[in-house]
Amino acid sequence: MGVWLVRDAAPVHADIAVVLGGDAYGHRILRAADLVKQGFVPKVIVSGPPGFYGMHECDLAIPFAVKRGYPPEWFIAFPHDAHSTEEEAEVIVNELQRRNVRKVILVTSDFHSRRALRTFQKRAPDIEMRLVAARDEFFAARGWWHTREGRKTFLLEWVKTFANLVGM
Q1: pLDDT in the model for residue 96
Q2: What is the extent of the structural domain holding 52?
Q3: What is the value of pTM for the model shown?
Q4: Is residue 166 part of a domain?
């Protein structure tokens, strides 16, 4: 059941990458930065839901990546007030449409990938989307039950996935 949560595709050339919010460890932004470094995308929109201590996630994630050697001009901060993947998809799809994006790479954690891709595709069937997953050290699709964090991640993602599938 852990494997079913994961949708991960090989990267392709796209207009832009989007890092979804919800990563407190920087795996997503570093995966997206590598996509720029490898020449798959010219820039990365960094989603910025509200988070810790009144900061938007993008305002923490971009300096995190810059501190690890990635140029700040690769990143576009996109602060917003969304509190769910559904709300995040709405604001990000509006921004992608405003920018006339036709092909995008979504970057999120592997455990969140299937639900995220489905949510974004539903909102923007006219935009070609590819999901490139960032690995998470606390979740293993084929061994999530071995750690407490893996079990928590698995359970929470399945609850959200079920709620999303039944329209909650």
Answers
A1: 98
A2: 7-138
A3: 0.94
A4: no
